[in-house]
Amino acid sequence: MKLGFVTAILPELEFANVLQFARHEGFSTIEVMCWPVGKAERKYAGVTHIDVIGMTKTKAENILAQCQDQGVSISALGYYPNMLDPNPEVSRFAVSHFKKVIAAAPKFGLDLVTGFVGRDWSKTVDENWPRFLKIWKPIIQYAEDHGVRIAIENCPMSFTRDEWPGGKNLLTTPAIWRRAFCDIDSPNFGLNYDPSHFILQDMDPLSPLAEFKSKLFHLHAKDVQIDRKALNEVGRFDFPLRWHQPRIPGYGDLNWPAFMAELMRIGYDGPLCIEVEDDTFGKTLEGRMKAIKVARNVLAPFFG
User: What SS3 state is found at 15?
Assistant: First the structure.
């Protein structure tokens, strides 16, 4: 396994500075955000550390040279929009850019792109399914044609009123994964698994690892703390941000020794990238950088 972090948390830094920070703090890899250049529409989105538009082999080689100079690899190229947005123009743009990220990956010698499936949050899973297959079968075929694997994060994207009630990402549970991997049967279609999202859904985060070990292409290291007092007041059907707090690894409810032991038992040897959405460290760049370093200190003993 390689320990890294998701670059979305450092939007103020240029790519070269992100690499320098990673090297200085002992990280061997980073998941690099590749959103279209422009203003973010939501928190943690819109970060462009590599602009894939017009990416050439020469540009990619220059970026790789920077990585090699710092001894830091790229675990994956990341882009996390809602590709099943009910607005067809929003959906088409997201799919179009996602394909640009896929096409760019081989120029870096990469075979992995991370993202969300998306979802129409006002519809059920069954109601979303025909459109999911219509949009995603061609995406996965496109990825296969480019020798790229797609790792979908299992985040429900259901935290606030505009994402209510179904959330903006479809692939959130083992039951849905089985259905998706059956209907789109491809070795290039898998998971970017984040265990904190199982805690949020009152599920055992270790439970899917053995069954889906062949689909674990990439992992996020994030924790979550359930505020039981708030939950007792408002109930689980209220907006989740009212009764939970994203935390860094070791500061929430997840049993990291047990989780890491299970990863080792099943033979997972891919990237594990820290994702920081923990505002208890503050919202400044300095606070977020500290959060990355503290999370590293929690996880570093598992890497020997």
Answer: helix
- Number of structural domains found in the chain: 1
- For residues 264-295, b (16+ Cβ closer than 10 Å) or e, as one string? eebebebbbbbbbbbeebeeeeeebbebbbbb
Distance separating alpha carbons of residues 45 and 34, to the nearest angstrom:
10
Mean pLDDT, the chain cut into blocks of 10 residues (304 residues total): 97 97 98 91 85 96 98 98 97 98 98 98 98 98 98 94 93 98 98 98 98 98 97 94 95 98 98 96 95 98 90
Reported pTM: 0.97
CA neighbor of 289 nearest in space, from 11, 1, 63, 2: 11
Note the residue count of the chain: 304
CATH code, domain with 201: 3.20.20.150
